Amino acid sequence: MRDLILLQNWSTAAYLGFGDRPGDSRIWQVDVVQLAYNSPFLMRGILAVSALHMAHTHPEREEDYVREATNHQIAALPAYRHALKQITEYNCQALLAFAGLTTVYAFHSACRGQSVISMDANDKEDGVMAPPEWLQLHRGLRFMLTGQIKEWIRNGPMKHQLRSYDDWHFDYDFNPDDFRILSFMSFLEMPAGRSAMSDEEADGLLFSLQHMRQSYALAMSPHIDIGKKFAIWLWAENVPTAYLQLIARRAPQALILLSMACVLLERAAPTCWYLQGAPQRIVSEVYDSLDKEWRPWIAWPISEIGLLRKASDGHDMVLTGDEPVVECEGLGEIAMAACARRSL
């Protein structure tokens, strides 16, 4: 009976926020469920995410629903991993659907955990910090959509997952905030911006920033039917290993770029339940991780996602953690001013 309740919740509410274009949500509501009738691990994945949605909408029973979600996800993983060893024309659609559900599960779970920007050292056998699991999983989707598998996917209900940066021409004029990204890009090309990074890491960061710029152009273009959520997830799928390494050691340049992604996440959140509150959590954690000299670079995300307030003395007040933190007026300066200061 519990599983039926969760399945009904998926089909009536939890599926909303999946997909991107008109009609995509119905694929998750109907077609993915039909796939799950022949793929038990996919059905478990659906029930796990539905239970997380119930925890989101019924906070008074959050602990119970999260426990249910965890049990379903743990039960699904062995069969999923076994199927990954031999991807076929018949199981590839279910595998891709489960992979998508798992990235959402990991992202939403991280937002409730100790850290959303890194995998806690206590969760790893070697005790070393690692990039967040949700980011690693998103990146893993790209490696799944290659070769013959890609052609198989193209002939099934999950074909909407096959979009890539190569599919579009980018018109950056549609993004009124493009200058902010360009300013940070210019800074990263200076010696001061590349501090404490190897050439490979700096190149990986610039590659990630260029894709970020493209994602914003896609999301803001009136001529391209790509939503804000898909645009930023497309970025996450394409970040190189060097960027993940920078995130793992909390390099300030990489964290600043991650906070920029949160502006698009916040704009997508009203229609996507598992994103709600996540941008604030990420940017707050980034703020706490940055030394004061780097914080002006995240003034834009802080303001856009609603973490910036004015204190009674006129100073900018950043709402982070349990207590507000009062900062100087410099936090409200645009990124170009920060670039000018740090390049001296």
Give a concise summary.
With 344 residues, the protein is mostly helical. 59% of the residues lie in helices and 3% in strands.
What fraction of residues sit in β-strands?
under 5%
Question: What is the β-strand count?
Answer: 3
Order of strands in the sheet with most strands: 1-2-3
- Largest sheet at a glance? 3 strands, antiparallel
Structural class: mainly alpha
Radius of gyration: 20 Å
Sequence of secondary-structure elements = HHHHHHHHHHHHHHEEEH
Spans of at least 5 consecutive residues whose pLDDT stays below 50 are 121-127, 321-344
Into which percent range does the helicity of residues fall? Answer: 55-70%
Identify the overall geometry: globular
Helix count from the secondary structure assignment: 15
Descriptive account of the structure:
The protein is mainly α and 344 residues long. It has 15 helices and 3 strands. It has helices spanning 2-14, 24-36, 40-57, 62-84, 92-112, 133-144, 147-154, 178-188, 199-220, 228-238, 241-248, 252-268, 278-289, 299-304, 335-342; strands spanning 308-310, 316-320, 323-326. Strands 1-2-3 form a 3-stranded antiparallel β-sheet. The protein is globular and about 60 Å long.
